Amino acid sequence: MSSNSSIDFKGRVAIVTGAGGGLGRQHALALAARGAKVVVNDLGGARDGSGSGGSVSAAQAVVDEIKAAGGEAMANGASVTDFEAVQAMVKQAVDTWGRVDILINNAGILRDKSFAKMELADFKLVVDVHLMGAVNCTKAVWALMNEQKYGRIVMTTSSSGLYGNFGQSNYGAAKLALVGLMQTLSLEGAKNDIRVNCLAPTAATRMTEGLMPQEVLDALKPEAVVPAMLVLAAQDAPNRTILCAGAGTFEAAHITMTQGAWLGIGPDAPEQLAARLAEVTSREGETVPQSGAAQGTNEVGKAMANAKRG
To answer: What is the pLDDT of residue 284?
Structure first.
């Protein structure tokens, strides 16, 4: 796509989860402004997932904003952890607009504590919302997207998952799991033009209040992340890409594999590995594997080459 090409979503139907405020709200507004019909999904709970939820008031406010600007939208209060409710949300979109082209998996909660102090219930809930919530929503649209031979799915990952962050073992584990989900779904969906990507945002939202100085929060407007989402959801979107975005800066993250070294399986292999660990972990010549098979191919290839030398 050239820099002069306009990204538009006319005729497209999008679902944005967690869209009652913060980043999700900006995603919904931006998609609608560029022509998409938008399902604005929000449970209406607190940022830690507490509260009764099920209130569509936050989502309805975003819908009203979209409609006031001349767009089309509907509110939905389903919990992403409730697969039947998510299926009903997708059916609502299809019954109204005939299709679902775009899914932005944005819903999430925080329950931050160090691993030593964290209750397992808090770990499980965060994984359920971020990981299983995205699984539920993706599963609910997957057959439809395969049938219509078109789909754009954006998973919201995080630097906490990609690189770690103190006090966020639950959140980080769920967020990196979404990258693993994206890696496989991008392969499985490719034949029917379903492109699956990840967005790692840095943005000041309700979930980050009190965690950063105000001047930093002011620089990290949620709107600054939206261009990356629009690119990942567009017709000309890449596939299997992790885009990072914040404060007007955009980066890409990659899961790479080093060239490694063949050491054999002799009794001294552990000692050889310890002695040559710097060589094994050297990033010179590292690759971004196109699938999990690349690791085995590299390992067997080096073994075969060594056998021929022997």
So the answer is: 98
